[in-house]
């Protein structure tokens, strides 16, 4: 249910043997929040900034800096809180028991320090952006916070995670323009459904554990075959919304339509990769590749094509 792909081997130190030294601790904190997974959200925020900028104009470097810092702060806050709240559950799950907190490499006190520092960074960076971004900050904190509790109450946790990442695209647009319109909302909802779809796939790994522990997810609520159908529907919605955005956006070029086509192809490949057989509805051993490799390429691919549109079309 959390953004953390499975590992074929355990690369971490033994339980309780956290890395020492300043850079060692920084490394442990980065591993705690899976800092490299910022690749899922940041490219869409940057894409929205480029799309929002007027023709032949670029967002200022200061806006770019504050958006990146706000994104890093927000995501680190959300993931740190998620890891802290889930520490007891993660310690019971064989797949996650070697995560930083249950394995004893990062203490709960350290985790709280990282969470509070990240929240402060998010607030400070957002305050350097247009007023509408500051006004929406309480809503952002609400969404980033409640995700970690959703699996206790509702299978819609996947959608809340999608909203958390999809709002980054809307935030990037607002940071560049200071004005909200329907265009960034359409683009943001494409990201929401993309994230929800692949998080449902990811949650299939913990189907038995979540069911036995009474945790909520789409796989637990509907079963694996139906959950995968919901995931496919989410990803179909992503493509339709991206196409709708491309149709309505006044500066759409072939580069963005290519982004839509490539995203559709990659999502089809993702679902083909995890396809099951007559005995099992999903190939769990392929979830890691589907989760990180394919979805990381989608977010980067969309950004690079939007960048090409800005460079060569305006």
Oligomer: single chain
Largest sheet: none
Into which percentage range does the β-strand content fall? under 5%
Arithmetic mean of pLDDT: 92
Indicate the percent of residues in helices: 55-70%
SSE sequence, one letter per element:
HHHHHHHHHHHHHH
Radius of gyration: 19 Å
Identify the overall geometry: globular
Query: What is the end-to-end distance?
Result: 39 Å
Number of strands: 0
**Number of H- or I-type helical stretches:** 14
Uncertain spans: 1-14
Backbone structural class: mainly alpha
Q: Can you describe what's shown?
A:
The protein is mainly α and 314 residues long. It is 69% helix and 0% strand. The chain has 14 helices and no strands. It has helices at residues 22-32, 42-52, 61-85, 87-92, 108-126, 131-135, 137-150, 157-177, 182-203, 207-213, 218-222, 224-248, 254-273, 287-312. Helix 3 runs antiparallel to helix 5, helix 8 (157-177) runs antiparallel to helix 9 and helix 9 (182-203) packs antiparallel against helix 12. Residues 1-14 have low confidence and may be disordered.
């Amino acid at each position: 249910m959390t953004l953390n792909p499975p590992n074929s081997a355990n690369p971490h130190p033994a339980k309780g043997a956290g890395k020492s030294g300043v850079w060692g601790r920084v490394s442990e904190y980065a591993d705690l929040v899976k800092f490299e997974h910022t690749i899922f959200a940041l490219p869409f925020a940057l894409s929205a900034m480029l799309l929002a900028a007027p023709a032949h104009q670029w967002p200022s470097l200061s806006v770019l800096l504050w958006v990146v810092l706000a994104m890093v702060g927000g995501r680190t806050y959300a993931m740190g809180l998620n890891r802290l709240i889930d520490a007891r559950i993660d310690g019971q799950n064989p797949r996650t028991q070697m995560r930083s907190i249950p394995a004893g490499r990062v203490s709960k006190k350290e985790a709280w320090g990282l969470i509070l520092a990240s929240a402060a960074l998010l607030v400070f960076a957002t305050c350097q952006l247009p007023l509408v971004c500051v006004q929406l900050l309480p809503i952002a904190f609400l969404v980033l916070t409640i995700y970690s509790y959703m699996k206790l109450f509702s299978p819609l946790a996947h959608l809340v995670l999608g909203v958390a990442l999809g709002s980054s695209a809307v935030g990037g647009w607002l940071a560049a323009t200071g004005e909200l319109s329907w265009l960034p909302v359409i683009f943001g909802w494409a990201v929401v459904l993309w994230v929800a779809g692949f998080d449902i796939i990811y949650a299939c790994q913990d189907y038995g554990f979540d069911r036995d522990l009474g945790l909520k997810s789409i796989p637990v609520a509907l079963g694996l075959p139906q959950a995968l159908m919901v995931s496919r529907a989410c990803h179909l919605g992503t493509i339709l919304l991206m196409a709708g955005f491309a149709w309505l956006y006044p500066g759409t070029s072939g580069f963005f339509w290519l982004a839509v086509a490539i995203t559709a192809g990659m999502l089809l490949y993702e679902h083909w990769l995890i396809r099951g057989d007559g005995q099992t509805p999903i190939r769990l051993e392929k979830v890691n590749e589907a989760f990180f490799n394919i979805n990381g390429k989608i977010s980067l691919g969309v950004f690079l094509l939007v960048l090409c549109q800005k460079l060569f079309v305006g």
